[in-house]
């Protein structure tokens, strides 16, 4: 501890006596910040005379008593504001090159110490007002401005261009208002507390007001002095002018702070850019009604340590404000003294105008409030339902998603599928994401949307796509996923891309998909059947690692159940026979679909191609035929110039095992992984167990509905319901739900009306 150079315990809820620490032992201490705590006691001489201490911040505590007469010559900054200190000002308060802030204490003012009194500090003490009688009912400030500006509200905004480094304050000559700044930027590039821009602002009539702003690394306060008591309107005006909203890394900077007025917390974690949907150079206002009781108002902007500190460079964080105005309600007709007062007539006209507008618009406001309340209640019900299912996922606002996708620009569309369009977007923190939007014409509804959130929120695996969050306060629900650079597997294999998947890549993709399914079936906290495994629902990251996506049709059920009886959903060509014909759903349906996808990866063609000869159109039938003829390797894609024959034969055999007609004969996915990685021997393929193929008329019918998606996560009619098959297999008295959602599987073997049935 004795070798400490910097010690910052700011806002740490410390409530001890300052004298309980022997600071003389900290012989190397240069920077000490204990501000915004509840520390009591006196400021001890051994602390103020500590070498080589340069920066001392003890503001906003409960320190009392008088100050020592001597301080160390190494001190350059002392903050003792907002304490209960009293007595006379020591002579060192006016030392050259020493910044001292003693605002809001109880120092006495008399002739004996008036000569060393810092400029107008008496106006900012607790019980020593510097005015004879209150005379003001308004003031306005242009933070960082250099000249008076008349605003569109008819207020005269006085310039605030005072140099306020580290720990300092300023009171105007008219003693009408003041400002105090506390804190030191860590390694700033320029040391300036005022920032500038030449940009014009389009959403305000007062663009010049927002071309400057005052920053603070910790605590920034504005004071109204000598105000008449009563109710006041406080308008704070902000615009982010330092963090751009372009596509560069500089745009990820965040400025987050709290806002207090008269000591009351008005805004927590206020983020200027977030309020403007991520847009810089855009004006945002906050208006509050407060009561002035002691002829004084305190507006406090406080940095609580959140946001970024070093983007785009050191020293640009903490609160920032462009302008503020304070004006009273119900003026009695007396104007403010001085040339910069607001017009009483204007204020009276404003009040009359407000009253008239309220009277005219009252009914419309009531109707609007009723509609808004109904919408809000519906949203709260949906939110509660979502939270009941999955806890509390990361909820994005519609404004955040709209800004991230550039208002859902057509140029950002990655693909379209059965769910709806998929957009590329960039969040405020710089993350690139894929946004799935539920189309109003989509077959996937709210239940499927909830299913996807519930399922993907419950599982985490390197071969499953990652869900960042969702948005449900828009007309169309939105899912926010990680963005995967190489798009979908079907585009990589069947599409016109620059990707040339060699043998090793294709084999590893098959292994990765198998591992993801094994996790869903056997390793996750719940048994999950995906129900829509196909090439377009497998995405590839930058390193071509596969990730299973689109969990809208997923089901999960208890370990005690042998299968679910459910309406058939999925994509033709990938459906297991027992599921397509009878609606019996188990993990073996995913195993079957995996076998088909593996064959597509090996052959470089879709599972059905109407352009080929009759006996070659259906890939699965072709694969079984070649295997029975002992010509297995003829199935491989002609683009594969080099490949491992042993691995290829093993992968084809595993794919055929996965597509056996009887589900009991298909291996579990964990065994599939073991066979692919040679942990166990591959089981011989029983040619009598080949699946019963879909009749020719069905093959021809599904070819017309087999729609190829484009781009990332595009769908291939993934929501197609095989109603003819499922309806023909229903038994009397058994009602199978054709809805794809079953979040809470039945606990018994019985069949509930309108729900999936689970068999033991």
From TrEMBL:
UniProt EC number: 2.7.11.1
Listed PANTHER family: LEUCINE-RICH REPEAT-CONTAINING PROTEIN DDB_G0281931-RELATED, OS08G0203700 PROTEIN
The name this protein goes by in its record: non-specific serine/threonine protein kinase
Keyword vocabulary terms for this entry: ATP-binding, Glycoprotein, Kinase, Membrane, Nucleotide-binding, Phosphoprotein, Receptor, Repeat, Serine/threonine-protein kinase, Signal, Transferase, Transmembrane, Transmembrane helix
InterPro entries per UniProt: Kinase-like_dom_sf, LRR_dom_sf, LRR_Rcpt-Like_S/T_Kinase, Malectin_dom, Prot_kinase_dom, Ser-Thr/Tyr_kinase_cat_dom, Ser/Thr_kinase_AS
Region span, Disordered: 708-760
GO cellular component: membrane
Key word Magnesium present: no
Chain segments annotated as transmembrane: 350-372
Localization, UniProt: Membrane
SUPFAM superfamilies per the UniProt record, alphabetical: L domain-like (SSF52058), Protein kinase-like (PK-like) (SSF56112)
GO molecular function terms attached to this record: ATP binding; protein serine/threonine kinase activity
Membrane topology: Single-pass membrane protein
Main location: membrane
Enzyme superclass (EC): transferase
Low complexity bias (residue ranges): 708-729
